[in-house]
Amino acid sequence: MPQHITAPEGGRKITVNADFSLNVPDHPIIPFIEGDGIGVDVTPVMLRVVDAAVARCYGNARKIHWMEIYAGEKSTRVYGPGVWMPPETLQAVKDHVVSIKGPLTTPVGGGIRSLNVTLRQELDLYVCLRPVQYFQGVPSPVKEPHKVDMVIFRENSEDIYAGIEYEAGSDNAKKLIQFLRDELGAGKIRFPESSGLGIKPVSREGTERLVRKAIQYAIDHNKPSVTIVHKGNIMKFTEGAFRDWAYALAQKEFGAEPIDGGPWCRLRHPRTGKEILVKDVIADAFLQQIILRPAEYSVIATLNLNGDYISDALAAQVGGIGIAPGANMSDSVAMFEATHGTAPKYAGKDYVNPGSAILSAEMMLRHMGWTEAADLILRAMELAILSKKVTYDFARLMDGATQVSCSGFGQVMIDQMEIA
Ligand SMILES: NC(=O)C1=CN([C@@H]2O[C@H](COP(=O)(O)OP(=O)(O)OC[C@H]3O[C@@H](n4cnc5c(N)ncnc54)[C@H](OP(=O)(O)O)[C@@H]3O)[C@@H](O)[C@H]2O)C=CC1
Ligand SMILES: O=C(O)CCC(=O)C(=O)O
Ligand SMILES: [Mg+2]
């Protein structure tokens, strides 16, 4: 029996076929988590914009039945102190296949571990998919932001996010340091008495399933290249192995052939015969090259921490994390969420850009096959930005802009749907 989740009347669950395709009823139930901080601002605006787009495209024939589920601070208010992630929330995300969430707070240092990471790990949402595209008219710190057109595939289940960490001075840290020194000959821990330790698991299976999705995406969307981003010169057996396993998979499963003896390789698009280049770049060099020569990069496959950094850095080039959407996906379950966090200083002020949450919902609609509604949202976003009625983040950099609130921007988008 659900404790605090109420299934909306008249809605039906989305289901998954054996080949992982979706059966989407015309009246699907979609769970949403409002989110902490600015979640209270952006999530209601996102719901309103999506409802307006769906109504405009399909009339009464289709409607999303939203079902609120809880995590984070709101969960502790609804379920009681200490209940940050109720089991029925995880179950609902799994059972309903497609869902969307607002940002959740993670304290720095002590306190609870990331609830965002918990959701990804508990549901094995191993792909973090973050497309980065430029909307005409958006203020950008770079000269040619329209050249940024990348899709990040961030490994979402491993790496330093596995949460295997030991606090400096704790018994476990002491034990592990002793083991590393005595059993494994690790003599280079500079200050053993005061070191905290973190462990970074990176597996072949985890790498292969992520890279497989990235290459398949390049094929399905006719992209020219897949770039593996890693720090394998320093972390040889985690990030270096990620690179090697990625190239091996491209050759083994997609027939890629080494260029001039490798490691770069090329595969042929199975239908068009066009070349798709598979290459790699060390992460620090990559961060400067995406600013200097963004047109050289298309699909990016990378590890969890690199992907986190790259997401925000690339978002900045096309206007910031106010319009940076994303999804966390397994083969069957997909949970959509903005790239940004809870931006606590703006919480509850109806101030921030709801664009990331709305564009995450656009990705969700496209994933469901509701392409018309997704297209309408994109068009309304473009028109809203061109009308220069924008939230503070764009207004502060845009000549002649009228600053509107978070809900005000949602309304501008809905108004633009009339003429889109
Ligand atoms: N998936 C998730 O749920 C995520 C959660 N978090 C969590 O969020 C909390 C806060 O993290 P923090 O590092 O401050 O990062 P945030 O992404 O929350 O905010 C950083 C800055 O980004 C800008 N920003 C963020 N959202 C928007 C928006 N919608 N519109 C316009 N500008 C925006 C603001 O810039 P400015 O000050 O210039 O106006 C803000 O101060 C932490 O607890 C963190 O763990 C972080 C990332 C993802
Ligand atoms: O879990 C968090 O609090 C931060 C996550 C994050 O920054 C991200 O997923 O981009
Ligand atoms: Mg991040």
From TrEMBL:
<dbReference type="InterPro" id="IPR019818">
    <property type="entry name" value="IsoCit/isopropylmalate_DH_CS"/>
</dbReference>
<feature type="domain" description="Isopropylmalate dehydrogenase-like">
    <location>
        <begin position="29"/>
        <end position="413"/>
    </location>
</feature>
<dbReference type="InterPro" id="IPR024084">
    <property type="entry name" value="IsoPropMal-DH-like_dom"/>
</dbReference>
<keyword id="KW-0329">Glyoxylate bypass</keyword>
<keyword id="KW-0521">NADP</keyword>
<keyword id="KW-0464">Manganese</keyword>
<dbReference type="InterPro" id="IPR004439">
    <property type="entry name" value="Isocitrate_DH_NADP_dimer_prok"/>
</dbReference>
<keyword id="KW-0816">Tricarboxylic acid cycle</keyword>
<keyword id="KW-0479">Metal-binding</keyword>
<keyword id="KW-0460">Magnesium</keyword>
<protein>
    <recommendedName>
        <fullName>Isocitrate dehydrogenase [NADP]</fullName>
        <ecNumber>1.1.1.42</ecNumber>
    </recommendedName>
</protein>
<comment type="subunit">
    <text>Homodimer.</text>
</comment>
<dbReference type="Pfam" id="PF00180">
    <property type="entry name" value="Iso_dh"/>
</dbReference>
<comment type="similarity">
    <text>Belongs to the isocitrate and isopropylmalate dehydrogenases family.</text>
</comment>
<keyword id="KW-0560">Oxidoreductase</keyword>
